[in-house]
C-alpha cells in the first residue's frame, strides 16, 4: 500500500541513503527525497515541507544539531526528526534533543526499528495536527457562542428604555469565568406599571451551564411563566425546569418585581446570595430571604419580601462569585463588607455602584480571571415627589 507522507533523508553516504530508501519503499513510503549535506537539506525542507526527516548527526558541512537549530531559529513548524548516529556520547544526543530532534536511532540501522519509530512519529504528528485543528474550530465556535450568550443580557438600549419607562436606575455586569458561563440577568417589562428583573446562576461552568442558560432565557421569554408575584413565578419556573434538568443541575435565582403604581419592590429568592437593600431612612442591610434552588425538587413554594419605595430604595443583587472568589492568602468580600460598601456608595448611580464593586474584585484578584461566573445588578428607585 502506497503511503503519501513525504520523507526527507539527510545522509552524506550514498550507500546508507540507498539502504534507508529501500527500507522505506518496502513499507509503501514512495515519496522519498534526500540530501547529502545540511545546506541542501534545509533547502528541501523549506521548499518540499517533508512530514518527517531522517537525519545523520555528522555531515560534511555541519551537524544534525546545526540543522535542528536552524529550523528552530526560523520558527519552522514542528516536524519529527529522527537522528541517526553511531555515537554513544550522551552529550551530543542531548544537544540534538535540545535543538529540536525528536528521536534517536543508533547505527547500524535496524529496519524494523526504523519503521516502527517513523510510523509512531508520523502518526503522533498527524494526531497533534488533528487536535490543533479541532482546538482552533472549538475556540472559534466557543467565541461565536460567547457572543450569542452575551446577546442574552439586556442591551444598553434596553436598559435605557426600561429605566426611562419605569423611572428607575438599573445597571448590571456579567463576566464568565470561562468562554461560556452559567450566569445571566434579564429585564422583563410585564405591563405599563410592572417590570420584573431576574438574576440566574446555574450550577457548573462551561458548555453545560451555558446550554441551561439558553434554556432558562427561552423560558423567561414566555409571558405566561410570570405570575402575579415573584414567588409564584419562581414556583412556575421550578415546575417547568425540574423534569428537564439532570441530577446535580440546578440554578440559584432571584426575581424582583417593581410596581410603579403601587410604589413597591417585591423580591423572591431560590437559594441565591442575600441581596443588600437600603430603603428610606433605614440603614443598609442584608435581606435574609431563603428558598430552594430551582430544579432541585418538585413542588417547592417560595417566600418573598416587599418594600415600599415612596421614600426611595437601593438594591444590590449578585451571584456568589462576588463573596466567594478570591486568590490564595486573600479573603473574599464578606457579606458585612458588602453592606458597608453599599453604605459608602450611597448617592452613586447604579452604574457607578456596579463598576466600583467590579473594579474592587478585579483589584483583589490582581487582574486575574475569576474562579466562578460573576453577575452584579444594582437597582435604585428615587424618592417620590408625591
Describe the structure in your own words.
By secondary structure, the protein is of the alpha+beta class. The chain has 2 domains: 7-142, 3-Layer(aba) Sandwich (Rossmann fold); 151-381, Phosphatase 2c, domain 1 (4-Layer Sandwich). The chain is 39% helix and 23% strand. It has 11 helices and 17 strands. The protein has helices at residues 14-26, 38-48, 64-73, 90-99, 111-150, 156-166, 206-220, 230-241, 321-324, 335-344, 350-364; strands at 7-10, 32-35, 52-56, 58-59, 62-63, 81-85, 103-106, 169-175, 183-189, 194-202, 251-259, 264-270, 276-279, 285-286, 304-308, 313-318, 374-381. The strands form 4 sheets. The protein has a 5-stranded parallel β-sheet with strand order 2-1-3-6-7, with helices on both faces. The chain has a 5-stranded antiparallel β-sheet with strand order 8-17-16-13-14. Strands 9-10-11-12-15 form a 5-stranded antiparallel β-sheet, with helices on both faces. Strand 1, helix 1 (14-26) and strand 2 (32-35) form a beta-alpha-beta unit. Helix 3 (64-73) runs parallel beside helix 4. The termini are far apart. The model has no long low-confidence stretch (mean pLDDT 89).
Amino acid at each position: 500500500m502506497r503511503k503519501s507522507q513525504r520523507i526527507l533523508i539527510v545522509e552524506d553516504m550514498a550507500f546508507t541513503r540507498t539502504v534507508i530508501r529501500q527500507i522505506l519503499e518496502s513499507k509503501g513510503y514512495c515519496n522519498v527525497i534526500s540530501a547529502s549535506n545540511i545546506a541542501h537539506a534545509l533547502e528541501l525542507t523549506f521548499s518540499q515541507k517533508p512530514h518527517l526527516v531522517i537525519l545523520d548527526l555528522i555531515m560534511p558541512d555541519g551537524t544534525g544539531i546545526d540543522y535542528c537549530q536552524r529550523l528552530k531559529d526560523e520558527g519552522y513548524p514542528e516536524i519529527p526528526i529522527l537522528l541517526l548516529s553511531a555515537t554513544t556520547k550522551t552529550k551530543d544526543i542531548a544537544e540534538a534533543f535540545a535543538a529540536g530532534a525528536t528521536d534517536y536511532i543508533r547505527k547500524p540501522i535496524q529496519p524494523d526499528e526504523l519503521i516502527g519509530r517513523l510510523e509512531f512519529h508520523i502518526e503522533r504528528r498527524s494526531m497533534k495536527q488533528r487536535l490543533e485543528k479541532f482546538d482552533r474550530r472549538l475556540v472559534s465556535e466557543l467565541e461565536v457562542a460567547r457572543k450569542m450568550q452575551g446577546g442574552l443580557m439586556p442591551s444598553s438600549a434596553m436598559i435605557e428604555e426600561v429605566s426611562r419607562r419605569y423611572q428607575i436606575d438599573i445597571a448590571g455586569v456579567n463576566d464568565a469565568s470561562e468562554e461560556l458561563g452559567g450566569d445571566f440577568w434579564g429585564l422583563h417589562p410585564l405591563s405599563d406599571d410592572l417590570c420584573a428583573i431576574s438574576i440566574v446562576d446555574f450550577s457548573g461552568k462551561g458548555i453545560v451551564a451555558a446550554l441551561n442558560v439558553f434554556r432558562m432565557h427561552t423560558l423567561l421569554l414566555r409571558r405566561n411563566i410570570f405570575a402575579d408575584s415573584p414567588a409564584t413565578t419562581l414556583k412556575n419556573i421550578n415546575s417547568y425546569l425540574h423534569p428537564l434538568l439532570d441530577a446535580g443541575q440546578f440554578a440559584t435565582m432571584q426575581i424582583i418585581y417593581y410596581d410603579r403604581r403601587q410604589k413597591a419592590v417585591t423580591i423572591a429568592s431560590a437559594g441565591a446570595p442575600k441581596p443588600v437593600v437600603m430603603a428610606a431612612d433605614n440603614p443598609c442591610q442584608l435581606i435574609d430571604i431563603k428558598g430552594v434552588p430551582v430544579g432541585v425538587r418538585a413542588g417547592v413554594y417560595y417566600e418573598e419580601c416587599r418594600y415600599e419605595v415612596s421614600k426611595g430604595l437601593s438594591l444590590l443583587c449578585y451571584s456568589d462569585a462576588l463573596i466567594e472568589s478570591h486568590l490564595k492568602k486573600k479573603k473574599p468580600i464578606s457579606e458585612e463588607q458588602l453592606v458597608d460598601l453599599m453604605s459608602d456608595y450611597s448617592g452613586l448611580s447604579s452604574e457607578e455602584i456596579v463598576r466600583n464593586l467590579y473594579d474592587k474584585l478585579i483589584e483583589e484578584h490582581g487582574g486575574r480571571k475569576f474562579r466562578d461566573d460573576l453577575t452584579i445588578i444594582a437597582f435604585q428607585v428615587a424618592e417620590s415627589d408625591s
